Amino acid sequence: MSQNGAGPVSVWKILKWVVALLVAAIAIFPIWWMINVVFALPGEPVSLNPRLWPTSLSAGIANIHMIFAQTEFLRAYGISVAYALLTIAGVLVFGSLAAFEFSLFEFPGRRVLFGFVLLSLMVPSAVTIIPAYLLTSQLGWLNTMQGLVVPGIASAFGLFMLVQFMRAIPKDMIEAARLDGANHFQIYWHVALPLSRNAVVTLAILTFIQTWGNYMWPLIVGSNAEMYTVSQVVGLFNSPLSHHTVDTVMTANLLAAIPPLVFFLIFQRKIIQGIAMSGTKG
Amino acid sequence: MSLRRHLPHYLMIAPFMILFAAFFLYPILSGLYYSFFDWNGVGTPNYVGLANYQSIVGSRDFTRAMTNLAQYIVITVPLGILIALALALLVDSFTGRWAGFFRNAYFMPVVLPAFLAATIWRWIYAPNFGLLNMILGWFGVRSINFLNDTGTMLYALIAVDVWVSAGFNMVIILAGLKNIPMELYEAARLDGASKWQQIVHVTIPMLGPVLFFVFTYGLISAMQVFDKPWLLTGSSFTSYGGRRHALLFPVMDMMGRAFGGVRFGEAAAYGFILTVAIVAVTAFMFALRAWRERQ
Amino acid sequence: MAFLEISSVSKSFGTLPVLSDIDLDIEQGEFVVFVGPSGCGKSTLLRMISGLEDVTSGTISIESEVVNDVEPAQRGTAMVFQSYALYPHMTAFQNVSFGLRMARKPRDFIAGKVEQAAAILQLDKLLGRRPGQLSGGQKQRVAIGRAIVREPRVFLFDEPLSNLDAELRVQMRAELMDLHRRLQTTMIYVTHDQVEAMTLADKMVVMSEGRIQQAGPPLTLYDDPANRFVAGFIGSPKMNFLPARLAAVRADSVQLEGIGGTASAALPLAGIASEAGAIEIGIRPEHLRLVPDGSESDGGLVLDGRVALVEELGAESFVHMDLADGTRIIVRAGRDAARPEHAVRAFIELERALLFGRDGQRIYGRSARRR
Questions:
Q1: Does domain A71-281 have CATH number 1.10.3720.10?
Q2: pLDDT recorded at residue A4
Q3: Which domains are present in chain B?
């Protein structure tokens, strides 16, 4: 039909490309602008350098260096990474164990229990966050890593996604393993889990992005400065009461943005697949 | 006896269900319980019956928050989906590497943490030297204080929200587009349908379930809006919602009463009201779909 | 007591009955085939023997031990699935050794067993490959290998050849027969293909609607079906059924009327228990002959009809002809024996005719032919 460059260049084609590129610019520009602000000489007024592209590598490096040297950013990185990794481990282990059962087997109460979990998706997270905070406080877990991580492990979204993927495992593979003498856990470990690798990886990445950006929960659970996650530290920079300059604030934000962005660029196929799957089957 | 047979199943789901019960079921139930009490978190709660509910519904903030929410939802959900649909069709018309490039570009805002997006947009919206006002300045238009002018605040928020949600919804709609068999388009073409007619008569009907999901999920999320208005207005627990509460929303109001006013019982009641509203809306959507299917 | 006994077994899914009153004895080393149309319950019965489905009532015993409540892996059975059910993320070696690895057998032991199975099935060179790199036939052999390695006392096959193309199916059938001969293990095989059943089985069990219609050696079922269903199910092309009327029962013969609309004949059968009434005559295509017009019926029956269509197969042909009352019958003939639209005559070898009552059951009688 139409070959690359061989057909007539119609008005529609040009329009299509213009619109697409324009929208792409709008989508990416804020991030691009953030990079430019960081990599520009701080004092330069905007009229001279409208920050449309990076102008000074050294200024950028100086900014980054300053953030790490003079604030607790590195520590916050550590806390956020630990928070994310522990949450991912919990969500994957607890979620896959349960998803294995809900997707492949029948047992009394299965529908009811799964129904409860699905219903919880409809309860606004803000509603549970306060009582969850109170419970965490009663357990003495405020300002601790377990207080940050444990309440977030029973993720209904994660369970739902893993169930959808695991449903696709052919039943006779499970039966064959049963006939081969594998016990329940062995079937989970040797058959179901390897076959769900895609879903597990996707969920891990989505959970990472979600915990990294989590603002509210760390804010109320980790009020001690030592437990600050990246989101809280950046929140300090962002607050209108902070007296930092634009480039400093943006540097903090850039440093916070890098891990999720990097993850996205590497795993974008899987992430998009995971979200799309739960949408079309939902 | 039959329970013993199913023991392995229960053991495997136990870890998840225990945590779920502890941090979801218990909070929801205890929230409901505390909503009938007056409690500041440390002392002993006082039973007050429906007083919390009454004071919430009667308060000016509640009315304001709900009004804002209604205005917000009515614009942002349909707008977000329309743009997502347009973007999905746009990306679908490309092939190979360019399709992937545009898809990733449009999805990138979703990946950013909310506090980040809010900060960047705060600076873009900044009066006088923010990017938008600079561009307006080139055209000789006077600087607008987007985030402080009660006339523009809501729209500024919607713009940020659409910037994020369009990419998310686009990805789901794209997957739905890929599922539409080519033969349907070919048959329509043979019947003489133009590109536009094909979209209206093939694409959109076939996207039915996907659009339903995206719309319902969008509604539920929009009703819980918190992060973005909170961060865009630079709110804190002592002062939130922006100028004249133009960006006050129900969840924010609830959080404010909890951690600002330290009235946990009242906040719990607020949460319950919100939950009922969301469940009602969801049930309505499903009933609507059932009604349409019977047509 | 038989090696494997199924006694008064019934199965229901909730209130939906799926199998009723199944009684079957299987001897050690027999190759038994469960055959029947879709939904007849043959797969369910197989799965009940394996332990994947529960028994609603009745007992299944292996070597005099009731196994109703025994775990599938402990019954000494192994199953080969229609879709092979191979683990795609493991090599052929790992697939075959899976059960042994789960039981934590020593590595040398496992290697030895797998090598043994691989030798029997000619899988030696393929052990390092993944299922995705194997052909259909090779995958099937790996699935069989996985079963062999467990040294079961009963092999169970659930339509294992259905996913293969025709040529491969014939080849694999021969390999299965060979395997049975070598291992001498009891094998129970499920298929919907009656040709497969006839060629493989020592004992054929024809099922329909949750019941056993007849069980026995294939040729017995072919020559001596117990009811109309078995008669019509086995044999390709199918047996012809002519509606007729049992007019009179005599000491050494029965009078049949209304065959093909108008013909009558006397069958030399004695000891008939039925009364007069409507019946069906069953006669296989190979027991019919096309005869030239005008020839006499010679101790047999001759029917006139018109050729509807002819299936030419090269060595023989099957002539479909319509009789006076509209019944269509198939006659086996030689090459080029008839043309469509022509009038023909079919000669029926009456001694080969089988009688079926209105309830579908066979009407038995002793041959009273006098020579």
A1: yes
A2: 47
A3: 41-294 (1.10.3720.10)
Residue/partner pairs of C328-335 with CB below 8 Å, 24 or more apart: C329/C240, C329/C242, C329/C283, C329/C285, C329/C288, C329/C303, C329/C305, C330/C237, C330/C238, C330/C240, C330/C285, C330/C288, C331/C285, C331/C288, C331/C289, C331/C290, C332/C285, C332/C286, C332/C288, C333/C289, C333/C290
Residue A99 reports pLDDT greater than 90: yes
User: Which residues of chain C does A198 touch, with a Cβ-Cβ cutoff of 8 Å?
Assistant: none
pTM for the whole thing? 0.78
Q: Which chains touch B (3 or more CB pairs under 8 A)?
A: A
Taking an 8 Å cut-off on Cβ atoms, the answer to whether A175 and C85 are in contact is yes
Q: Per DSSP, what are the bridge partners of residue C344? A: C305
Tell me which of A2-16, A245-259, C13-27, C169-183 is least confident.
A2-16
Question: What percentage of chain C carries pLDDT values higher than 90?
Answer: 55
A–C: how many Cβ contacts below 8 A? 58
pLDDT at A45: 67
Length of chain C equals 371
Tell me which chain B residue has its CA closest to the CA of residue A235: B115
pLDDT tens across C128-159, in order?
Answer: 999 999 998 899 999 999 999 989 999 999 99
The minimal CB distance from B176 to the residues A23, A34, A280 is found for A280
Domain map (residue ranges) of chain A: 11-68, 71-281
Interface touch C85/A195, C-beta < 8 Å: no
Q: The domain at C240-367 falls in which architecture?
A: Beta Barrel (2.40)
Task: Tell me if B254 and A275 make a contact (CB, 8 A cut-off).
Answer: no
Distance from CA of A200 to the nearest CA of B (A): 16
Q: Are A180 and C52 in contact (CB < 8 Å)?
A: no
CATH superfamily to which C4-233 belongs: P-loop containing nucleotide triphosphate hydrolases (3.40.50.300)
Q: Is B70 exposed, middle or buried (0-12, 13-18, 19+ CB in 10 A)?
A: exposed
Q: Is the ipTM of this complex over 0.90?
A: no
Q: Do C78 and A179 touch (CB under 8 A)?
A: yes
Q: How confident is the model at residue C369 (pLDDT cuts 50, 70, 90)?
A: low
Interchain proximity C99–A195, CB inside 8 Å: no
